[in-house]
Specification:
Helix content: 55-70%
Shape: elongated
Distance between the termini: 61 Å
Oligomer: single chain
CATH topology: Outer membrane efflux proteins (OEP)
Order of helices and strands: HEHHEEEEHHEHHEEHH
CATH class: Mainly Alpha
Number of strands: 8
Strand content: 15-25%
Length: about 425
């Protein structure tokens, strides 16, 4: 049984060593992470392809300006003509040239349809703008996604450093308690308390390491690098802009956010759709021309094995009478859609104002909290030093020491995360205004 346990431990150690050997660390600044995400994220690739599709649709719509040309040729076997009397009795059989063929070329070009072609092209151009705005919105979302993951990684690393520092202090304190126990100054219960505290710290470190591994996999996949690469954030906290009034950020959102630009483009599309519908009220005027050559000549008896050549050119005018009553209803539908697009713009602006206001307040709260947590950390560290000195001199209880340690740990964790939270809330505000 012991041999089996030893073999199991050996296999686990080899697996752990192999996994560690495959993992490489890579220091990365936030700008580098964002740049890789913009190059490699699948969602952005899809939105870029949508832009190319929309542009190609515009090029296809522009082909309507060109004339349409058709050419045809056929060959056929022509049977003899059977002549019948009025009572369907056979009169005679007329020999015909049996081989026949025809050639033709027809061309036409739209001259006037109320600007339908031009308006159709303008409609596809507006749809291209929508695709570009969707790409811009996706870009903002991806930037914020990887920024959040990057800051969360930094937060986990900070938390782990706090735990490691406290584990070091707790280990030193436990050694002192063991010395006191040997001297008969404390009971075994004091050693157990210290060991339990160390176990709790180790458990916290294990959870943080697992959380980092999961988050690292997510971030590495998003920016297009191998998940085995362990990203080590290199963050500077000096890039936050000076605080402005709320109205400044509201104006920024109104001017830059792709959602509002998309809603405005939706209004333009609705207007253009009404213009296209109105073209149904106009007649269609087109120029046409053609050339035909056919054999044999069957318009005379006997038929002649000759080619007939004809050509024609002219102008055609057509008008669908039913458009007089159908177009009116279509136009009314277009007006309903236009009103809906205007209401959507108003709704989007209201929602954006609410989101910007909330993001702004959260940023201000984060700034104030960072200052408060810094002061709390200083007080907690001072309290810890005082209680520790009293405890080492047998002037404080283990419960006092535990309370001071927990207060110190909590204060350090809160302060370690507060500056990162300031960054997070600032980037969230920039995303809300569409300027991340």
């Amino acid at each position: 049984m012991k041999l089996k346990n030893k073999m199991t431990l050996l296999v686990l150690s080899l697996l752990f060593s192999a996994a560690s050997a495959q993992t490489t660390e890579r220091k990365m600044i936030l700008d580098e992470v964002i740049e890789l995400a913009l190059e490699n994220h699948t969602q952005l690739k899809l939105s870029r392809e949508n832009i190319q599709i929309a542009k190609q649709q515009t090029r296809i719509a522009e082909l309507q300006k060109l004339p349409s040309v058709t050419a045809s040729a056929n060959a056929f076997y022509l049977g003899d003509v059977l002549l019948l009397d009025k009572d369907m009795s056979k009169v005679a059989t007329v020999d015909m040239p049996h081989f026949g063929n025809t050639y033709s070329i027809q061309a036409s070009e739209l001259i006037f349809k109320g600007g339908l072609v031009k308006k159709s092209i303008e409609m596809t151009e507006l749809r291209t703008q929508l695709a570009e705005l969707d790409h811009e919105k996706d870009t903002q979302n991806i930037k914020f996604l990887v920024t959040s993951a990057y800051l969360d990684l930094q937060k986990i690393i900070n938390q782990k450093n706090v735990y490691l520092n406290n584990r070091k202090l707790a280990t030193e304190r436990l050694e002192n308690v063991k010395k006191f126990y040997k001297q008969g100054m404390v009971t075994r219960n004091e050693i157990i308390r210290g060991e339990l505290f160390l176990k709790n710290l180790q458990q916290g470190i294990l959870v943080l390491e697992n959380n980092r591994a999961a988050l690292n996999y997510q971030l590495a996949t998003a920016i297009g690098i191998a998940p085995e690469v362990l990203i080590e954030p290199v963050t500077s906290f000096g890039n936050v802009a000076e605080t402005q009034l709320l109205q400044y950020y509201l104006d920024l959102a109104h001017q830059n956010h792709p959602v509002l630009k998309s809603a405005q483009t939706g209004i333009d599309i609705a207007n253009k759709n009404i213009e296209i519908i109105k073209t149904d009220k106009m007649p269609t005027i087109a120029a046409f021309g053609g050339y035909n050559m056919a054999r044999p000549v069957t318009s005379s008896l006997p038929a002649k094995d000759l080619y007939t050549n004809t050509w024609q050119t002219g102008v055609s005018i057509s008008y669908n009478i039913d458009n007089l009553y159908k177009t009116k209803e279509k136009e009314q539908l277009g007006k309903y859609q236009l009103n809906q697009a205007k209401d959507l713009l108003m709704l989007q602006q209201q929602n954006l104002d609410v989101q910007t206001n909330a993001a702004y307040l959260k940023w201000q709260e984060a700034l104030q909290q960072a200052q408060l947590y810094k002061e709390s950390e200083e007080l907690a560290n001072e309290n810890y030093r005082i209680i520790e000195a009293k405890y080492l001199n047998q002037l404080a209880l283990q419960a006092d020491m535990t309370d001071a340690t927990n207060a110190k740990l909590e204060a350090e964790l809160l302060y370690a995360n507060s500056e990162i939270n300031v960054q997070y809330q600032y980037y969230n505000l920039m995303k809300t205004t569409g300027t991340l």
